[in-house]
Backbone:
């Protein structure tokens, strides 16, 4: 069976609907940075998805080369896996967290986790391979090392615009446990998307929300 990060690391990807404090270790991602409303048709965010999934599936499907040619090069230490869910770091100038009424002012880093066997050299190979196969510019896709550290997180069920209610619950819980939010230029509002909004009704969307915290 392919390795499934959501199942193997359920504490990171499948939290309860009640907030909890958790320490997130360092991980590597394919990432694309941008600005603007994610709902804009033809906008930067929509274009970023093509780059993220293009590289993610180039790595995952590299195993198929061996079926065509037993002597084909294979990524060292490769194992079959399920591509992890899409994630996003979000922020706005002079705002702690995010303001959902000002989506045009979003800055974001969209990202998908990379398996541990993917080094920077392997990432660069996948980037070149995807460019040659798909004939599009992958230059905005970056190898992103991110160590998130101490956070409060919670599973939000519902539309993205209804997230503030869950965020307020998270903040109150963190305060009750002796923590406070700790946003900075390196620590952001973080979302992990467990549902596809093209296929799931807004009221049933499942999103992990994570905020950085520190001891008071």
Residues:
């Amino acid at each position: 069976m392919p390795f499934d990060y959501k199942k193997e690391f359920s504490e990171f990807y499948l939290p309860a609907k009640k907030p909890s404090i958790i320490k997130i270790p360092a991980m590597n991602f394919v990432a694309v940075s941008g600005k603007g409303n994610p709902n804009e048709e033809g906008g930067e965010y929509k274009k970023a998805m093509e780059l993220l999934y293009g590289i993610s599936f180039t790595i995952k499907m590299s195993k198929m080369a061996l079926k065509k040619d037993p002597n084909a090069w294979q990524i060292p230490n490769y194992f079959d896996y399920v591509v992890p869910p899409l994630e996003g770091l979000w922020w706005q100038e002079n705002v702690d967290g995010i303001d959902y009424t000002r989506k045009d002012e979003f800055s974001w880093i969209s990202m998908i986790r990379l398996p541990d066997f993917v080094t920077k050299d392997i990432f660069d190979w996948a980037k070149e391979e995807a460019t040659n196969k798909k004939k599009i510019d992958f230059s905005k896709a970056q190898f992103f090392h991110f160590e998130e550290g101490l956070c409060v997180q919670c599973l939000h069920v519902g539309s993205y615009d209804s997230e503030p209610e869950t965020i307020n619950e998270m903040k109150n819980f963190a305060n009750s446990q002796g923590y406070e939010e700790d946003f900075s230029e390196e620590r952001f509002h973080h979302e992990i998307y467990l549902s596809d909004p093209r296929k799931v009704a807004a009221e049933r969307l499942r999103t992990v929300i994570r905020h950085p915290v520190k001891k008071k």
